[in-house]
Amino acid sequence: YAAKSSRVGQHVYSPGDDSNDKARLRTLHELRVALAENQLLLHYQPKVHLPTGTVPGVEALVRWNHPTRGLLYPAAFLDVADNGGLMRALTRAVLELALDQAVLWQAQGRTVTVAVNLSSRSLADYQLAGIVITMLADRGLPGSALMLEVTEEFLLVDHDRARNILLRLRKAGVMIAVDDFGTGYSSLAYLRDLPIDELKLDQSFVIPMLDDERASALVASSIHLGHSLGLRIVAEGVETAEVLDQLARFDCDVAQGYHLSRPIPAAELERWLDARTAVPAGMRAIR
Ligand code: C2E
Ligand code: MG
Ligand code: MG
Ligand code: MG
Questions:
Q1: What whole-number distance in Å separates Cα of residue 104 and Cα of residue 96?
Q2: Which of 98, 198, 263, 281 has a beta carbon 3.0–4.6 Å from 60's, enabling a disulfide?
Q3: How far apart are alpha carbons 240 and 158 in whole angstroms?
């Protein structure tokens, strides 16, 4: 403890930090095992097109079926993966799972684009675009079967690198979404010269939009901005019918949130999709 606190350039460790470090190291070790033993799985959350009620795509969200701790959510292990050098492997594992699922859905005649999240650290992966393109080709999937959700941070940390990666992917037909739009850097310049298909309004604006005029103004003006750039706007964090109605009035294109469906396993999502299409289109509306 005393030895640690004398290390140059590091803060003084408290015993609490020590146990925290131990927990992180343990999680990192277990995550390595998890990757080798396929303990990661995906849940899928539908994105609902507001004007028609159809489901153009689903977002894949990683979960970890931990042998003793049960089902873990990204908040419990993504940071550890990111800082522990495992993000590359995790991203590849998630892409494999998502694209394998896309093949199954395609064989069932379902036309849903599967969206995968990329951490901003994936930007450092020189092979990323090539690997994605190879994974698609290996499965005979068109690029349009896949959407990648990147953050503003991803786009701005190294703009030229991001641009090269995205242009390569776009050329292969892969779609690109900007996730958590409005929470990152304030520059909007990237919207000018990056190949983006979709803006996802962050849930921190969407959830309070009925009670908070400023949140509401940000949602409305982001929709307007996106539309004037020819982008599709997705609202995430839609938790109530009232928010959904207001988004439809604001001309938002797509909604995603607990009110429509939580992220669920693939088989459950298939039942959810089938139950929706069983309802006559006119009755289906958006709820
Ligand atoms: P995100 O990409 O912005 O995903 C949305 C998060 O909000 C998900 O949490 C989702 O379950 C949750 N959510 C969806 N609808 C609602 C709602 O109506 N209300 C509220 N309060 N929350 C809602 P989750 O699955 O815990 O994922 C958290 C974050 O972890 C994601 O945020 C994404 O940044 C990251 N993540 C998830 N899967 C992956 C992955 O495979 N790779 C990477 N790099 N990051 C991932
Ligand atoms: Mg996302
Ligand atoms: Mg998001
Ligand atoms: Mg978010």
A1: 13
A2: 98
A3: 38
Q: Which residue's CA lies nearest to atom 12 of ligand 1?
A: 237
Question: Which distant-in-sequence residues (6+ apart) come within 8 Å of 68 by Cβ?
Answer: none
Ligand 1: lining residues by beta carbon, under 6 Å? 45, 61-62, 73-75, 78, 94, 117-119, 149, 179-180, 203, 236-239, 257-258, 263
Q: What is the mean pLDDT of each run of 10 residues along the chain (287 residues)?
A: 38 60 92 97 98 96 96 96 95 98 97 96 89 98 97 88 94 96 79 92 96 96 95 97 98 98 98 85 54
201 Cα to the center of ligand 3, angstroms: 7
**Assessment of whether the complete model's pTM goes beyond 0.95:** no
Question: Does ipTM surpass 0.90 in this model?
Answer: yes
Question: Hey, what are 104's tokens?
Answer: 């199954």
Distance CA 125, CA 88 (A): 7
How does DSSP classify residue 278? H
Q: What is the DSSP string of 112-161?
A: -EEEEE--GGGGG-TTHHHHHHHHHHHTT--GGGEEEEEEHHHHHHTHHH
Residue 237's alpha-carbon distances to 57, 68, 261, in angstroms, are: 16, 30, 10
